[in-house]
Specification:
- The structure is a single chain.
- The chain has 88 residues and is mainly alpha-helical.
- It has a domain of 54 residues.
- Helix content is 62%, strand content 0%.
- It has three helices and no strands.
- α1 crosses α3 and α2 packs antiparallel against α3.
Length: 88
């Protein structure tokens, strides 16, 4: 799945959080760190031993990860809200 095409922002955000496996209370730094971790893990260019089928699957997973990060990052940029509930 390449991320939902329709639905409310909360559905997009919920799906994005599931893809990145982060909590609703994750900070911007935690989200960024998880994004970088997953992108590195699934980067098909760094996995020379992958078969073509695995490379395609890794490319799709990477696409989902990038989409998820863009949804969460865009939401924060638009709202200007911190993801850290401990911050004022």
């Amino acid at each position: 799945m390449r991320g939902p095409a329709l639905g409310s922002r909360s559905k997009h955000e919920s799906r994005a959080r599931a893809i990145l496996e982060v909590s609703p209370f994750a900070t911007e730094d935690e989200i960024r760190a998880r994004y970088l971790e997953l992108v590195t893990l699934y980067d098909p260019q760094k996995r020379e031993y992958f078969t073509q089928e695995l490379k395609r699957a890794a490319e799709e997973r990477t696409h989902d990860i990038v989409w998820a990060y863009s949804v969460l990052a865009a939401n924060e940029w638009k709202t200007g809200e911190s993801r850290n509930p401990r911050e004022p």
